[in-house]
Fold:
Amino acid sequence: MREIHIDLSNDRCSPAIFGGYMAEHNETKVIIKLPDRMLTDDITKYQFIIKNSKNEIQSDNVVDLSDINNGNISTMLTKGQTVGGCLMLSVTASVEKNNIVERKAKTPIISLKVRNSI
Structure:
């Protein structure tokens, strides 16, 4: 398994990052260090949004609050998500009360480059 560490604690966009090879069998774990503004006690939901180069959503999985570790959040990229040349990834944090979203924050968009097979 490959691990990709991305530090967004400074709340700035990172350059394009190598995300793996097209349709490889290995999974890739993406670990993101969140900015402080997205680590407040009132956050009720974190969600990874992963889109392909055609802007189609590949994943929009919700991350359990208990899975946040020292400001880090992670998700897995699977073989099916690495079929295009580029993935766009971001994390949203929401504050919901009575099923109404009161506030939402989003990380800068991360570009993961997926290369042709080795």
Notes: The two ends are 16 Å apart (CA to CA).
